[in-house]
Amino acid sequence: MELGLLQNLKTLKEIGKQMKKLTIALLIISIHSFAQEKVAEVMDFGSKFTLESKILNETRTYWVRLPASYHNPSYDKQSYPVMYVLDGKSAFFPLLGVVSFMSEKESVNFQIPEMIVVGVDTENRLKDLTPNPSTKMPSGEEAKTESQKLMMAGGGGGEAFFKFLTEELFPKIEGDYRTLPYRMYVGHSLGGLTTAYTLLKHPGIFNSYFSIDGSLWWDNGKYVREASADLQNMKSKSVQRFYLSVVDSSQAGAGNKFHARCIHQFAQALKDYGPTNVQSKLDVIKDTDHSSIPLLSWYNGLRYIFEGYDVSHYSFTTNPNLIESHYANLEKTIGLRMPPPQDVLEIVLHYLTAPNRFPDKEKALMVAKIGLKYYPKAPFILEKIEKIESSK
């Protein structure tokens, strides 16, 4: 019996040793995995913030994504336009991909400027995104059933929401980040009603607007009916560009005809009564519906809003004098006042100094000197000048 106990004790000790080895092995694996996680690259898809709004008496959330070049150590400090997009939770992340592809140097695609994107959450869309209370349905008819009346209840907080943006959120964004005096307002559905209303009633606060399949049917088309007078009386003289998109109402299953008709009528009012500084485009998009139309609208709309911004950087390598004149002209054409961006200067300098591209030391020095006028502390420019001069 004692022998059996001894054998059991030995077995238990052996099990204990094996368990200890297993524990150490698992610990090593865990540490290794943790180390791998620590060294993994973190991708920047923006940050979420809260703001205590005294105007709305609510805690409001918003999202911010800075341009890829914002913290580039090779660049001098640079400022950027700001895009404010409504329905931040649903629109912010997919829109980032569109903006990134169209603007950042990794894709060598300078269709639009890099920009700060701000997603504004709208928890109660009916309250925040309608300018006045209404009991009219999307068809233009009066709400009759209890469910219809309940669906339309609670609207009319648009002015308070506008005040929150302009008096609380704008100062926060423009205080925390390097911004240019250029704001873009992007809205879909009720958000598209909001952007249209803002142009009419508060012109000049934004420089450009998206109304994506906007709910201009609101209150039996109230703001469509008021558009002609508001546009004719508009005092703001700054260039404002307004992009509207609408589902093709001729396609099967296109939905509410009154909704589409209101958008077309608003677009016509912009053409007929808008002052010369208000430029607009209506984009009728086929093979989409109310939910899917934003993606194509973001791309098409950005192409329109920044029409003329995109110029081949090859032309700058041929004639560096075009750089300053091109960006100076944008203020007249699309209302964007900005210096030549550093990512464009960087690629032009690369092409003019790389032996397998279009090497030309004199032109490279011209580009570098243009860059120094706007970015006197940019390391990449200073380094290029040093290399060019030392190679002479």
Commentary on this structure:
By secondary structure, the chain is of the alpha/beta class. It has three domains: 12-42; 47-305, Alpha/Beta hydrolase fold, catalytic domain (Rossmann fold); 313-390, no CATH class. It has 14 helices and eight strands. An eight-stranded mixed β-sheet has the order 1-2-4-3-5-6-7-8, with helices on both faces. Helix 6 (190-201) runs parallel beside helix 7. The longest helix is centred in the first third of the chain and has 38 residues, at 2-39. It is elongated and about 85 Å long. Mean pLDDT is 89; it is low at 1-12 and 22-29.
How are the strands ordered across the major sheet?
A: 1-2-4-3-5-6-7-8
Q: How does the major sheet shape up?
A: 8 strands, mixed
Order of helices and strands: HEEEHEHHHEHEHEHEHHHHHH
CATH architecture type of the largest domain: 3-Layer(aba) Sandwich
CATH class of the largest domain: Alpha Beta
Radius of gyration: 28 Å
The DSSP helix count reads 14
End-to-end distance: 96 Å
Give the fraction of residues assigned to helices.
40-55%
Shape: elongated
Any idea how many domains? 3
Query: What is CATH's topology name of the largest domain?
Result: Rossmann fold
The CATH superfamily of the largest domain turns out to be: Alpha/Beta hydrolase fold, catalytic domain
> Could you tell me the mean pLDDT?
89
Regions with pLDDT < 50 over 5+ consecutive residues? 1-12, 22-29
Secondary-structure map with pairings?
Elements: H1 2-39, E1 47-53, E2 58-65, E3 80-86, H2 88-103, E4 116-120, H3 125-128, H4 146-152, H5 158-176, E5 179-188, H6 190-201, E6 208-212, H7 218-232, E7 240-247, H8 257-273, E8 278-285, H9 293-305, H10 313-318, H11 322-334, H12 342-353, H13 361-374, H14 379-390
